[in-house]
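Journal club prep — side note

Before the paper discussion, L.F. wants everyone to see what a predicted structure for a comparable chain looks like in token form. Sequence:
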Amino acid sequence: MTQDDINAIAARVISIEADALYKMAGDLPTDFAGAVEAILQTKGRVIVSGVGKSGHIGKKIAATLASTGTPASFVHATEASHGDLGMVTAADFCLLISNSGETSELRDIVAHTRRFGIPMAAISSKSNSTLMQAADYKLTLTQAPEACSIGMAPTTSTTLTLALGDALAVALMERRDFQPEDFKVFHPGGKLGAQMATVAQLMHHGDALPIVDHKTPMQDALITMTSKGFGIAVVIQEGALLGVITDGDLRRHMDTLMQATAGDIAGQNPVTVTPDMFAAEALNIMNTKKISVLLAVDQNNMPIGILHIHDLLRAGVV
């Protein structure tokens, strides 16, 4: 088998699954919107369950729901039959996954939902299966062939299930008006957490700020610039930001520098940000303006913080 033959297999698999996804986009389950509204009314969690490949997909769906504002947990169907049914309460909503709809391990959790009146949705390819007949919300997958050469390995069906789970999560996000600041609460770690950090969380403040009054002689302003280590001096007048002195300003006024005040040398209209801005946005401003330092100001244009690109590097934003 040549490399071209191998690539042709990959292209065929992806094409089969892509065609199935495109078909399902135009043929969503009739109960999809109803399931979304029912989950929104749920006081507890969405309990996702399945076994085998459906279980693996179910774990991902539960994780996506939980990270986007819909409390969710995965309960293994076999473990449910040995005590874990105690995790499923009358306040919950169950989402059960079985491509065939005849998975015997789901029998006990199905009976539990019926006994205690727990709303239940099922994802399956078989609309007339035992599982689908028991479900309150039938999320039937589009009929499409599996992508494997023998037509048996779960490939297309698991891809469709995963996509349907993503569709549920995103529909719920938008119905809840889930915002980036909400997303940040559930993603504090790693690269994503760093990018979702705010300027206020990374900036220097208080005595660390290189602030001088506009009447300060440049000899003293230079000492402040040097001691604070940011390469700039923040010039204020009556507490409000007047301007910023940079190395470039020093070079441009070299001839009269020692006879001037900070207000005479400061460049006007420096680039500023608000403390609630995301660090990733601040980085974009730095890159666009080709600067390495940003000032954070409050609603009265008073400087309250300073952010250096090194702070973003240390936090992992870059």
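L.F.'s comment for the group: The domain at 3-178 is CATH 3.40.50.10490 (Rossmann fold). Keep this in mind when we get to the figures.
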